[in-house]
Amino acid sequence: MLHGVTTAEAPEAPPQEPTTRRRRWVPWAALATAVLAVAGYGLWWLGWSTPIRDHGGYGVGFQDVEPGASRTIALGPFCLDGAGSATIDAVTVDPAGLTVVAFSVRHADPHGYFGGFPGSLRDSGFGGSRTFTDQCDHGDHAEAAVERVRGVNGPAMTDHVFVHWSAGVRSGVLALPVQAALCLDGEVDGDLCPPDPVPFDGKR
C-alpha cells in the first residue's frame, strides 16, 4: 500500500462502454432524421408545390355554336410566388365533347381583362406567348386565353380546365374550377346552356 493515499482518494472507475456507445449513436439518429425531413420537403417542393397562384373559377356558356366552331375563354388572373417565370406547356379539359386547339398567356391589364371571344384565339388578338413573369408581391397578374372547338355531336362542356405548367426544375398541373360549355342552337343543359328567353309580348 502506498503511503499518503487512502481508499477514498482512489480514482473512479471509467464509465461502462455501452453507455459511451449509446451517446455516440444519438448524433447519427438526429442527422438521419434531419436528412429525411429535408428530402421529404424537397420531394414535396418538386412534385406537389406550385408557384402559380390563381384567383378562383367561374362558369360560361356560348349559345348557338355549330359543330367544328371554336370559342375562346379567359383563365386567371395568375401570379407567381417563388419563381421568376413560368411556362404554360399545355391546357386540357374534361373529355366531354371539347378539344383545346390553342392557348396563350400575357400580362393582364387590371382595367380591361380579356373575358372571352366568339371565335379563334388568333382572331381575338390576344397574342401568342406561353411564358409569364408577373409577381404576386408586386401586385402584377397574368391572364391566359384558351380556344376550344366543339365536337360533332353530343354535349360539349367541362367542369375543369387543367393548366400544365413548368418553372425551372418544377412542373405540375393546376386544376381550375372553370365550367365552360359550347351549346348547340336550342340545346338546354343546366345553367350553362339555358333555354332561350320567352319574348315579352306586353300582355303579362
Tell me what the structure shows.
With 204 residues, the chain is an alpha+beta fold. The chain folds into 2 domains: 16-49; 52-182, Sandwich (Immunoglobulin-like), CATH 2.60.40. The chain is 17% helix and 34% strand. The chain has helices at residues 17-47, 121-124, and strands at 52-54, 59-62, 70-80, 86-93, 98-107, 116-117, 131-132, 142-150, 157-158, 161-167, 170-176, 179-182. Strands 1, 3, 5, 6 and 8 form a 5-stranded antiparallel sheet that branches. The chain has a 4-stranded antiparallel sheet with strand order 7-4-10-11. The chain has a 3-stranded mixed sheet with strand order 2-12-9, with no helix packed on it. The longest helix has 31 residues, at 17-47. It is globular, with a radius of gyration of 31 Å. Mean pLDDT is 77; it is low at 36-48 and 198-204.
- The total number of structural domains is 2
Number of strands: 12
- What is the helix content? 10-25%
- The CATH class of the largest domain is identified as Mainly Beta
- Provide the low-confidence segments as ranges: 36-48, 198-204
Mean pLDDT: 77
Q: Enumerate how many helices there are, as a single number.
A: 2
The assigned structural class equals: alpha+beta
Broad shape: globular
Spatial gap, N to C terminus: 126 Å
